[in-house]
User: Fold this.
Amino acid sequence: MHDEALLVARLFLGVPFVIWGAMKLRGGEAKLVPVLAGLGLPDAKLLACLVGFCELVGGIGIALGYPVRTCGVLLGLWCLVTGYAAHKNDINQLLAHVAMTGGFFVLAIAGAGTLSLFGGAPTGLFAYLS
Assistant:
């Protein structure tokens, strides 16, 4: 039951990031560029594509369960930074980002479980990434 619960948690946390990342890479970055430019960030178009790529790769890593600890910590930090930078004036969005952060950090601590890529225990070179 524990491994099934970890799989469900990974899918609930990872799949939205896969969708958001794919949407940004398929033209959705046009909506993000003005927001990033408004924050005073340089080269907003490139940064928007980078955001989409990071969300896509991180979401895939979480959903597949490898490297779940690394992706969990990075996406948790990502949610904190984006929550504060982009949603500090909207308490509901900020709290949603804080909640996702908690989920990612718990997943990073618990691990992927056996229902994941490499069964939760990669070997060789892949072991260094998790």
